[in-house]
Amino acid sequence: TGPESRCFDMTDVKKEIIKLDTGLNLEISCNPKTMKSVATLLMAVNRMKKTPTHSSWELRGDELCRVIMDSLVDETVVKTVADATTGQRSIKFVRVQSEECTLSDTHKKDIICTSEDFKLQAVTLKGGYGDRKVNFKLVKYISCGAGQTFVLSIKNANNHKLYLSCVMNSDNAELHLEKCSEDDISSSNDMDRFLFDKKLTGISLTRFESVKYPGWFISTSESENQPLELCQTDSAQRVTYFKVSSKNPLIG
Questions:
Q1: Which domains does the chain have, with CATH numbers?
Q2: What are phi and psi of 177, to 5 degrees?
Q3: What pTM did the predictor assign?
Q4: Pfam families, per this entry (predicted)?
Q5: What's the distance, Cα to Cα, between the start and end of the chain in Å?
Q6: What pLDDT is attached to residue 125?
Q7: What are phi and psi of 62, to 5 degrees?
Q8: Which of 39, 61, 214, 215 sits at a 20 to 30 Å CA gap from 23?
């Protein structure tokens, strides 16, 4: 047993039902693996105890779920803008969560970044070269109009963030790396090119579809040492399914 198990034993807690409020209980069904998980759980319980009113528990289904999630999530409003000439408002995106992760396709190729021209490529890494994997920051946003969407970014050699974007060139969507501020993400001024829908398939496979250009997915080639690109669903010899391996989950 490690030091964490000695300082905090969850054995007696895992079957406990915690009374939060009238009509709502929290049942802990598994043991957190780390003290960070324990702290996150306790923070969530405290928020659920304090925030919703009694009338909130009279809600059912989606409305009750929304109230509960509103009490758990620290929201950061990214941006809402209005066009002075048309009066149209862009969709408001709210940042709710982020995590650090690596990506590998279903052919077990990992995503790396070339040092010469700073391009993302898919390569089968041999033992001892795991440090070449690119660390992605995956940031989740929600909105009333677009549901859950994600922004992917990496850091270059100067520690500056570069964001994956979808840009249409003639009839072909291209995957670019661009500088951007997360505070600028909205549906106006072409900023939705940075947004991707994260589509879960099966147990642990994920696809990333462009929000701006639906039907275009982040993909790798079946061949080695080829760039990360965008393709359409029926594209031959392209791989659009990825395993997302979380390295450092973050909340808020």
A1: 16-52+59-72 (no CATH), 93-247 (2.80.10.50)
A2: -110, 120
A3: 0.63
A4: IL1
A5: 31
A6: 93
A7: -60, -35
A8: 39
